[in-house]
Structures are given as C-alpha cells and as structure tokens.
Specification:
The protein is mostly helical. The chain has one domain. 79% of the residues lie in helices and 0% in strands. The mean pLDDT is 83.
C-alpha cells in the first residue's frame, strides 16, 4: 500500500466517544506526513544517485571492455609482428644460405677452371720444352758433325814451321764445344 504525504494529511477517522484527541492525531499525522515526504524525497535522491552510479558503472564497463579489446588487439598485433619478423628472418637466412651455396659453387667452378688452365699451361710448357730440346738435339748433332769435319773440308795443311797457336776467341771456343758440353747445357734447361 503506497501513501503520499498528502493522503496521510487528509486521512480522516470516524469520531467516537472516548476516542483520541483530534488535535493530537492531526499533529501526529502532520509530523508523519512531513517525515514521509522527506523519506520519499530521500528515496528519489537515492534512486537518482543509484541510476547515475549505474550509468557510471556501465560507462566504466564499456571503457574496461574497450581497454580489453585494445589490449587484445595490441597483443595480436605484437604476435603478428613477431611472427612476421621471424618469417622475414627465416627468409633472409634461407636467401643468405642460397647465396652462400651459389658463391661456393662459383668458387669451385673457378677453381676447376683454374686447374684446367694450369694443366693446359703445363702441357703447353712440356710441348715447348720438347720442341726446344728437339731443336737443341738437332743443333747439337749439326754442331758435332761440323766440329768433326769428317770430310776434311776444313782441314788446314800443316806448315813446316807453324807459329804457336794463338788462344782461341770465345766464338771459336763455342764452335769447337764438345757434345758433352751441349748435353750439360741441355740438361740444365
């Protein structure tokens, strides 16, 4: 049963013989209606404060939810960046390994080509040495034949009183060099 302050003030009672003093009842009803009015006002204030506090709670809950969503988004973004950085690092590592393998293969190919060039040069040198040796052998044989003068074409008649032979020049000494001297020269090459 709800009462307003006005209803309490206007409440009437039946009169009876030996009943309550009417003034006291009215005074009491006035006090009760004032108290009631004050309590109803306080209740309205409390309901308004309660509604405001509920609004604030709803606001803070929304803020909390927004912060939670923001933190979750930041966490996901950080995880994505970390994952992306790991993928990028792995990709760079694989690329570096591929480049290193390519460099090693290229170095091995160059090494093989250099070895082949050295082998060809060694074979060419051997060919040149054989050619020079062959030429020197032929020249030595010609020189020996020239030095022996088997046909006697270069023989000088002996005169009765030959003067003492002069010391041969370097050119003459080289022309009369023996085959053993030529072999020693060839061996030193």
């Amino acid at each position: 049963m709800k009462f307003t302050a006005l209803e309490i003030k206007q409440q009437t009672f039946e009169k009876s013989f030996r009943g309550y003093d009417e003034n006291e009842v009215k005074a009491f009803l006035n006090v009760v209606s004032l108290e009631w009015e004050m309590l109803v006002g306080k209740m309205r204030d409390l309901e308004r404060d309660n509604a405001q506090l509920k609004d604030k709670i709803k606001h803070f809950e929304r803020v909390e939810e927004a912060l939670h969503d923001t933190l979750q988004t930041a966490k996901e973004t950080a995880e994505q960046r970390i994952s992306g950085a790991k993928r990028e690092a792995q990709s760079r590592l694989e690329k570096a390994e591929l480049e290193a393998d390519g460099i090693l293969r290229e170095a091995q190919n160059q090494r093989q080509a250099i070895r082949q060039d050295i082998q060809r040069l060694a074979e060419r040198r051997d060919e040149i040495v054989r050619g020079i040796r062959s030429y020197l052998d032929m020249a030595s044989a010609s020189l020996n034949a020239f030095a022996k003068d088997e046909a006697g074409v270069f023989a000088v008649p002996v005169a009765a009183a030959e003067p003492k032979a002069a010391k041969p020049t370097k050119a003459e000494a080289a022309a009369t060099a023996s085959a053993a001297d030529l072999d020693a020269i060839l061996d030193s090459i």
